[in-house]
Amino acid sequence: MSRLLWLPMCGLVALLAVASSARGQAKPYIGFVYPAGAQQDTTVQVKLGGQRLVGTHGAVVSGEGVSAKLTEYNKKLGNQEMTLLREQLRELRPNAPKSARAKNAKGKNKRKNAGRNKPKNKVRNKSLPQNKETRALIARIEKRLGDFVRRPACAAISDIVLVEVTVAPDAEPGAREIRLLTQRGVTNPLVFYVGQQPEVARKPMKTCPTQVLGKEQFALRKRPNEEVENRISVPCTLNGQIASGEVNRYRFKARKRQRLVISVKGRELIPYTTNLKDR
After folding, report:
1. CA 276 to chain centre
2. 160-183, pLDDT tens digit by residue?
3. What phi, psi does 33 have (nearest 5°)?
């Protein structure tokens, strides 16, 4: 404290201003982890959703025997950013789908030029030579366009981070804590389990769109029939996500008079969830 007394007054004021802005800065936050665990001696890709995750540069899991590596960060995009992505995709692949505005403009020009003589020699856009890096970029842009939701049901979990988690064979089983490292600091922790049984995980869901009163059916997720029911072998650990209006089924073999123990982790994984119960 005596050191602060030796600071010049302007330096002390600047120091207090920095401390005040740090306290007022919103902290990064994660709201879900999927799958919420992994078996010993395996490597899995984990999807985390949250907000204010710009500048995420790493991930950590508490305890020994578990390592995490950041592989991808996708922030929530706006309409202008989506337009820029479509334009970039058209430059890389001229046959890419165009935006609604571009389609309308093309339709107007077509009607305006109706009846005029068409040029004899039509010049077509040719695709640029695509190397491995270009193809990877095209695939990533197409995925971002396909995952885009204009109005997400929960903006608090619309920033997406993908993390590769590796669990050592001798890692102690049980609950751990996983966090993301960002420019704004470390996020809140969520539970991540190290298990001993084989893990079964459905394909991660996209961000759900918000529902409009009276038009809820338009916000329901469209999925193929094979995703409704999964065939599993017991014993195992199931990881699942479910959207509004959905039913997920699991089919497995069991013998007569065989005793089965099913333990469900709901609120323990996501504390703010009120309609899930641990059994």
Report:
1. 22
2. 999 999 999 999 999 999 999 999
3. -130, 130
